[in-house]
TrEMBL record:
The keyword Transmembrane applies. The chain crosses the membrane at residues 12-32, 44-63, 69-88, 109-129, 149-165, 198-218, 230-253. It comes from the Eukaryota. This is Steroid 5-alpha reductase C-terminal domain-containing protein. GO terms for cellular component: membrane. It comes from Recurvomyces mirabilis. The lineage of its organism: Eukaryota, Fungi, Dikarya, Ascomycota, Pezizomycotina. PANTHER family: 3-OXO-5-ALPHA-STEROID 4-DEHYDROGENASE, 3-OXO-5-ALPHA-STEROID 4-DEHYDROGENASE (DUF1295). Keywords: Membrane, Transmembrane, Transmembrane helix. InterPro entries: UstE-like. Residues 318-346 are annotated as: Disordered.
Amino acid sequence: MPTHAPVHVLDNYYLAITFIVTVAYQLIGFSIAFSLKFDKLTDFMGGTNFILLAILTLAMGGSTHPRQIITSIFLMLWAGRLAGFLLFRILKTGKDDRFDDKRDKFWTFLGFWVFQMFWVWTVSLPVLFLNSPNVLAYRQPKFGKATDVIGVIIFILALGLETVTDAQKYQFKQSEAGKQPGAICNVGFFAWSRHPNYFAEIMVQVAIFIIAITPASYGAIPKGAGAYSALYASMLGFIFLTALLMFLSGLPLQERPGAKKRYEKGSNWPAYEKYLHDTSILLPMPPAIWSRLPVIVKRTVGLEFPIYVFDPAKHADQDKLREREAEEGQQGGHEHQNRESTEPMR
């Protein structure tokens, strides 16, 4: 039995009220971060915003149905873990390099926070809609349908993978091996995927979506109803997250730029080139399989699109290469002279 009838606020899908709350919450975070030049708040405000929206919509909906409760808790678990880990990491490092060219520029820094607003609000859509009056107006199917079970299994595996891979990468960076010049993080799941944490983050949201659409997929909400369309439209959440990681702030900022930087600095490039060849960019799979796949398969269904691929002939800065080669030549010459001057006469 519900604790009370769903509370109607502005609209029957909680879109307006959650958007207003998100904007207000993020603007508070922005004002503090910009005024104090404080990096430690940014990711924490993003993660806790998800928790705020889940609690708010669950409370306003008044539902005690397991599906509404479980999806809300899943969103809070994922967001709480992410916020906690990122806060722990920034407390250890002291600052976030992403904001070195932003934190002193009002509009540029604000732009990041505005983007975070849309990230939080859009990814939360499955839970917002499931807890909304228009969906709760229909009889909810008993929890335990195939979509519920599949979603729960995927969520547990994906959240576990994301937690483990974040820990593996952090521990590697703190280790002696990780602090060596040109170190390559190929430990644990990173031997099977260059970005297993991104894959896991996407699958967490896919899992929540699969559970959330159960009332529509099992006919409790008739086709043609607004609530039916809304639940399926909430796939925009994981689609937006996937697009964000694959085409905006994730892979494009790490793949080609990272390889370019290593190549130009001569930072263990041969080993890194082999790692790129042997390791899937996103989908976890054994290196023995990925390394043998045809290039056309890697560049299509393997998701290693051409925008990520570094070609030294096309993308390397030749001036930097010449400077590095000149420096190495001078160092080699000095070492050779030193060796000659200290050799005993024979």
